[in-house]
Design a protein that fits this description.
The chain is mostly helical and about 325 residues long. Helices cover about 85% and strands about 0% of the residues.
Length: about 325
């Protein structure tokens, strides 16, 4: 019975994670209206699958063996998935892209607190890398955007080249979004698969192959509801900004995945988009936007609530 619930909850979580990941990986091409939702969802699912199979097992190892030092059982695996799934569903209802990695790490942390076997050093490393990469995503994007915006004598030749090679630019934007989706696969599919692999006799690669396509299904069903928050509500994303955002943020995620670290792709991309907004609208105006305040509020509270929910469910169902 628990195994069946594990599978059902994993499917639900994968669908919701697919929505959030789609909102950041394909926001450039969707925001600049180069792809419709159907084509974007199919391409997204295929690239997530490739990233999950090739690099995802590294992240699974960290989630299972380096956050909680307690070997999880099927019941704990189910409670971790329920906690993460509930919080991801809440974030999607609020139309705020939420880090699937942070929610999953928080759920594992709640289990570790229950068993009193938390590897705080791993938690510190994950948080530190996330903060550093988020800041770097903002600063590098801000630097590049300042070089090309606003249009002026010094950067006129850049715009001229973009205009002359417009068709190639559009193809390049789509390629960078595929690269971003690959990055999602290297990190986020592991968040769904880890509780299953830790509590059931299933191969990590096989589990990744089964879970990754569900990300594409979730993106197709509801991806457009959250993607508007990133690609249009903060600041409309142009074609040049789109390429900058995708290349920078996806590179940081893939680096973190190669290190075996769960990492918040959503935060990287949102910080990168905020940098574009700061250049165009000014820092004060950007920080004063209601959507910015709502995003920060949800980012802080949802992981904390996930830890609390995971711990509470363990106290209720596993016992004191």
């Amino acid at each position: 019975m628990i195994s069946l619930l594990l599978i059902i909850t994993s499917v639900f979580l994968a669908l919701n994670m697919g929505i959030s990941g789609f909102s950041v990986s394909f926001s450039p091409s969707y925001g600049s209206r180069l792809l419709d939702k159907r084509k974007a969802a199919v391409l997204y699912g295929l690239c997530v699958l490739a990233g999950g199979v090739l690099i995802g097992p590294r992240v699974i190892q960290t989630l299972l063996g380096k956050i909680s030092l307690q070997q999880i059982n099927p019941l704990s695996g189910l409670l971790i998935l329920v906690s993460a799934g509930a919080m991801m569903f809440l974030s999607n209802l609020l139309k705020i892209p939420q880090s699937t990695s942070f929610v999953t790490v928080a759920a594992f942390l709640g289990a570790g607190l229950y068993y009193r076997k938390v590897n705080w050093m791993t938690i510190l490393i994950i948080l530190s890398v996330a903060v550093v990469f988020s800041l770097l995503s903002f600063m590098i994007t801000f630097w590049f955007k300042r070089k090309i915006y606003p249009p002026r004598q010094k950067n006129f030749r850049v715009y001229e080249k973009f205009h002359l090679h417009r068709s190639n630019l559009k193809r390049f934007i789509i390629l960078t979004d595929l690269y971003s989706a690959f990055g999602i696969g290297t990190n986020n599919v592991a968040n769904v698969v880890a509780p299953l692999v830790g509590s059931m006799p299933i191969s990590p690669v096989f589990a990744l192959v089964l879970a990754a396509p569900l990300f594409g299904v979730g993106a197709y069903l509801s991806g457009d509801k959250v993607i508007n928050t990133v690609s249009r509500d903060i600041i409309p994303i142009g074609e040049i900004s789109a390429t900058i955002i995708s290349l920078i943020t996806a590179s940081f995620v893939i680096i973190a995945s190669l290190l075996g670290l769960p990492t918040p792709y959503v935060q990287f991309t949102t910080f990168s988009i905020l940098a574009v907004s700061c250049v165009k609208d000014g820092v004060a105006h950007t920080l004063g936007k209601a959507i910015f305040k709502k995003i920060i509020f949800v980012w802080i509270l949802v992981p904390l609530f996930t830890v609390a929910l995971s711990l509470l469910l363990h106290l209720i169902f596993v016992g004191r």
